[in-house]
Amino acid sequence: MSVREGNLEPPKRHPLAWKTPEFYDEGQVLAELERVFDICHGCRRCVSLCNAFPKLFDLIDEGDSGEVDAIPKAKYWEVVDQCYLCDVCFMTKCPYVPPHAWNVDFPHLMLRAKAIKFKKGEVNFRDKLLTSTDALGKLLAIPVVAQTVNAVNRNKVARGAMDKVLKVHKDRRLPDYAPQPFRAAARTDGQFPARDGERTPGKVAVFSTCYINYNEPGIGHDLLGILAHNEIPTTLVEKEACCGMPKLELGDLESVNRLKEINIPQLARLARDGYAILTAIPSCTLMFKQELPLMYPEDAEVQAVAEAMFDPFEYLVLRHKDGLLKTDFKQPLGKVSYHIPCHLRVQNIGQKTRELLQMVPDTTITTVERCAGHDGTWGVKSEYFDLSMKIGRPVFRQMAAADPDYVSSDCAIAGRHICQGMGGTETKKQHPLSLIRIAYGL
C-alpha cells in the first residue's frame, strides 16, 4: 500500500475559489493552517525545500508541547511569509496531496493566507513596488533613465541608501534595465511555408514577458533567431501586460484579475488561430498553464490559452520528435552547468532543455535540479537575502563542481543569483536559449 492509500492517480489541483467570501475568512484559514501544519509536522519530508518548513518545525519544536497546538496563531504568518509559492512541495514531495483524503495543498493554502494579508492592508510599499514589473519597466527602460538606474544599482553608497529606505538588500546583484526594450527591436517573419507532416503547432506567437522586454531582451532575440533558423512562422503577441505571477505571489488577486483581462482575450485569439504560445520565462508560462486555469476553471478562453502555452524547449523537442527541428549545430558548448528552476520542474514536462542541449556535439551537461532560493522578488528583500543565499548554497556548489564553460538556468534571475553565489561568474552566464543560438552559429 502506498502513502496515497493505493491510489495511483497523479496529484490533482482543486480550483481556487478566490471570488467567494469564505476564501478570505481568516478564522477558516487559521483552522486549515493548523490542520495542514500538523500533517507536515508528522511527515517532515519537505524540510530541505525552502525556509517555510524549517520555520514551521522550529516553532513546533520550541513550543511547550512540541506539537502544533502550542504555536500561537499569530506566529502562523511567519511561516506564510517564508513561502514563495515555488510549488515543488506539492508536485514532487508531499504524499498527501489530492486525491489523498487529507487534501494537502500547501502552496495554495499559503496563497490564500497571503491574499488575506493583502486584503487587510498588511503589505508594504516596497512589495507592491517590486511586483509592479510592467510599470517599473516602462518607467526605467528608457535610454537615459536606464543608464542612470543601472549606475545607481552598481553604486555602493546608493545601494546602502536603498537598503535602508526600501529594504532592498545592498549586496543583491540586480539586473540591468535595457535602454531598448525587446518589443521595440524585435523582428519576426511569418513567410515560411508549412511543411508536410507537421503535428506540433506550425506557427508561434511569442509573449515577451516583463523581464525579457525590459531587462534581458537578448534572450528574446535569441528565441526569435532559433525560430527563424527553423523556419517556424513567428509573431509577437500584439499587446501584453505582466502575466500576473508577481502579484499572485503577493496575494494581490484583484491585480491578477486586471492583468488577465488584458492578456487572455488576445492570447485566446492566437490559440484559436492555431498558434503555439511561447514565453522565455518559466514563471510566466506556469501562470498561463496552471494558475490562471485554476482561478478561472469555467473560462473557456483561459483554458484555450493554457492548452496552447508551451515552454520553448518543450515546443522545440516536440518539433524534433516530429522530425522538423534542425540539428545543424556548428559550435560545441563544452561543459555546461545547467539549473532547472522550480517553476519549470512543476510543469511536469520532463527535462526538455537538457534534452536539447545534449544534442549539441562535444557538449557535456551537468544538471542541477534543486531550488536556487531567489524566487522573483523574495531574494531581493533585505530580510530574506541571507536566507536566499543559504538555500542556494547546495546549488552553487554543484554548479561550480564541474568547472563549467557556461552557467545556465531557464530562469534568468536564478542564473544571475547562482553566478553571484558562485563568486562572480557573470561572464559564463548564458540562458539555455542563448546557448542553442550559439550552437547554431547564429
UniProtKB/TrEMBL annotation:
UniProt cross-references to SUPFAM superfamilies, sorted A to Z: 4Fe-4S ferredoxins
tRNA-binding recorded as keyword: no
Pfam families the UniProt entry points to: CCG (PF02754)
InterPro entries in the record: Cys_rich_dom
Domain Cysteine-rich span(s) in chain numbering: 204-289, 336-412
Keyword 4Fe-4S: yes
Keyword vocabulary terms for this entry: 4Fe-4S, Iron, Iron-sulfur, Metal-binding, Repeat
Superkingdom field: Bacteria
Protein name in UniProt: Fe-S oxidoreductase
Biological source species: Candidatus Competibacter phosphatis
Lineage: Bacteria, Pseudomonadati, Pseudomonadota, Gammaproteobacteria, Candidatus Competibacteraceae
